[in-house]
TrEMBL record:
<protein>
    <submittedName>
        <fullName>DeoR family transcriptional regulator</fullName>
    </submittedName>
</protein>
<feature type="domain" description="Helix-turn-helix type 11">
    <location>
        <begin position="6"/>
        <end position="59"/>
    </location>
</feature>
<dbReference type="InterPro" id="IPR026881">
    <property type="entry name" value="WYL_dom"/>
</dbReference>
<dbReference type="InterPro" id="IPR013196">
    <property type="entry name" value="HTH_11"/>
</dbReference>
<feature type="domain" description="WYL">
    <location>
        <begin position="137"/>
        <end position="203"/>
    </location>
</feature>
<dbReference type="InterPro" id="IPR036390">
    <property type="entry name" value="WH_DNA-bd_sf"/>
</dbReference>
<dbReference type="InterPro" id="IPR036388">
    <property type="entry name" value="WH-like_DNA-bd_sf"/>
</dbReference>
<dbReference type="Pfam" id="PF13280">
    <property type="entry name" value="WYL"/>
</dbReference>
<dbReference type="InterPro" id="IPR051534">
    <property type="entry name" value="CBASS_pafABC_assoc_protein"/>
</dbReference>
<dbReference type="Pfam" id="PF08279">
    <property type="entry name" value="HTH_11"/>
</dbReference>
Length: 228
């Protein structure tokens, strides 16, 4: 393995860990000596990597530090391009613009030969068919998820019955032809799922949800047996 590849592997190993990791554990993971780990960490620090810690305490990559897109292999790059192109077809204007911007940034920093390969990628995303192409209320729901605030929904179920619900948004699932909001429903006092194309109106309420969304997400995943 070249030294450049080893340095990048060290960065990736640190990036995958949220807590400080010892030099011994890093050396074992990378198959190098303690001395090499210490030397490589100092090299990376000298090149601007935000690595905190010291010998005997462990090392951690400071939050916010990201690896350059040239780290992606061909399969990872294909996955990113296809995923972003799919997002650009979902009908949320802000999300489409963000995906387009992210794709442009990735392509801009690729080596020339890989930039050409990305531009000629054979993985294309077709248009979303039907009502889901409009992704109704997706932008408002995404903001409520980010800000952890309640939503009021005017909703019609599959039989056409109309109800008014106040919900605590948890997650949005993207499926073939439609999007689904998972939420805690104050009316039913339980987790419920709402198709976005059946939401007639959505209003963001100036009320924070009573429980952190990550805790609700964990409870919902356990209820749906999504971690098994």
């Amino acid at each position: 393995m070249s030294r450049a590849a080893r340095l990048l592997d060290l960065l990736q190993t640190l990036r995958e860990r949220r807590r400080p990791v010892s030099a011994a554990a890093l050396g074992e993971a990378l198959g190098v000596s303690l001395r090499t780990v210490y030397r490589d960490i100092e090299t990376l620090r000298g090149q601007g990597a935000a690595i905190e810690g010291e010998a005997g305490l462990g090392y951690v990559l400071k939050p916010g530090f990201t690896l350059p897109p040239l780290m992606f292999d061909d399969d990872e790059l294909d996955a990113l391009i296809l995923g972003l192109r799919l997002v650009m077809r979902r009908g949320d204007g802000d999300l489409e613009a963000a995906a387009e911007g992210a794709l442009a940034k990735i392509v801009a920093v690729l080596p020339e030969e890989r930039e050409r390969a990305a531009a000629a990628s054979g993985l294309l995303a077709g248009p979303v068919c039907g009502e889901a192409a409009e992704a109704p209320h997706l932008g408002l729901i995404r903001r409520a998820l980010q800000e952890e605030t309640k939503l009021r929904l005017a909703y019609r179920d599959k039989k056409g019955a109309a109800t008014d619900r106040v919900v605590w948004p948890i997650a949005v699932g993207f499926f073939e032809g439609y999007e689904m909001l998972a939420a805690w429903c104050e009316t039913r006092r339980d987790f419920r799922h709402f198709r976005l194309d059946r939401i007639g109106a959505a209003t963001a309420l100036d009320q924070r949800i009573p429980k952190h969304r990550r805790l609700l997400l964990a409870e919902w995943r356990a209820r749906e047996d999504l971690d098994g």
